Amino acid sequence: MRFKSIALVALTAVGLAAGPAMAQTYPTRPVTMVVPFAAGGPTDTVARLIAQEMSGDLGQQVIIENVGGAGGTLGAARVAKADADGYTVLLHHIGMATSATLYRKLPYDTLGDFATVGLVTDVPMTIVAKKDFPADDLKGLVEHVKKNPDKVTLANAGVGAASHLCGMLLQEAIETPLTTVPYKGTGPAMNDLVGGQVDIMCDQTTNTTGQIKGGAIKAFAVTTPDRVASLPDLPTTKEAGLPSVSVAVWHGVYAPKGTPEAVVKRLSASLQKALQSDLVKTRFAELGTAPVAQDRATPAAHAAHLKAEIERWRPVIQKAGVYAD
Ligand code: ASP
Asked: How far is the CA of 240 from the centre of ligand 1 (A)?
């Protein structure tokens, strides 16, 4: 008994010492940032910019690993099960909150398995279509879709993706269920939209702005209360007659639960620095978004936001009655 308690004291002392000591040296090797969607999409774009800036600050490469599929839940599961040492982190979006209701069973506990590091950005979405889609404004798109519900296909990145959420709001608003085509991310979905293999999509400006400006796809509306400066001619869904299709896609960084607090703090400080960099500010503005204010890029603000967003979207999803197993 006596021996046991001595061993316990010794172990506790080691445990206490490991935290600060680790944080002083962390990171001593590359950090993997999991993006729960395919490469080339909007979450990937945001993550790569942040990773580039954080690499400079941390003095170690932050390497992107794309783990797409099942609306972002596979990538989140990968991080939930990773070692809690700060060398595997996740950059996810609003899907972290909506999946908690959308999935009857998740391979992780949304609030219990992660340490929040900080919020990153709130990205508007756009309703877009292949360039020869037979409508020129949102009213025309809705009319066409209502007349041809089984002919029009809607791309998304799976149940739990932002494109799924926005598509769900759209189908609710026009009271017309559509045939959805799931991808591992809206990067590959965009390729098919440009190629005309799929008809419409709702996706972040961080993926659609370049294609809209280049004329490769048609845009109908932006899903935020205000227009976006990078696409000034695009009306809001409210202006265009579908006010309930309203959503901004927040992104946040997570570490596995149990990651030493000092390491989470170090990651958060690095994220805050990245968000203030000229490169991130400029690229985000070109892509129709902006970094969050510094006080939102913190573990506490992110944790509160995640909880509030789970509550906010739960009744909306329940009303729509969409669930996945
Ligand atoms: N924008 C996608 C979504 O629907 C995800 C992605 O490919 O980044 O959530």
From this structure: 24
Indicate which atom in ligand 1 lies nearest the CA of residue 68: 7
Using the atom order of ligand 1, give the atom closest to the CA of residue 40.
7
Predicted pLDDT at 8: 39
Q: What residue ranges line ligand 1, CB within 6 angstroms? A: 37-38, 41-44, 95, 156-157, 161-163, 185-187, 203-204
C-alpha 29 – ligand 1 centre gap (Å) = 29
pLDDT of residue 7: 39
Residue bearing the CA closest to ligand 1, atom 4: 163
Helix ranges (H only) for the chain are 2-25, 42-58, 73-80, 95-102, 138-147, 162-173, 186-195, 205-213, 261-275, 278-286, 299-320
pTM of the model: 0.92
What was the pLDDT predicted at 14?
39
Question: Which domains are seen in the chain, by residue range?
Answer: 19-123+250-320 (3.40.190.150), 124-240 (3.40.190.10)
Q: Which residues of the chain fall short of a pLDDT of 70?
A: 1-23
Q: 125 has which bridge partners?
A: 204
What is d(CA 264, CA 268) in angstroms, rounded to the nearest whole number?
6
Query: What per-residue confidence (pLDDT) applies to 1?
Result: 35
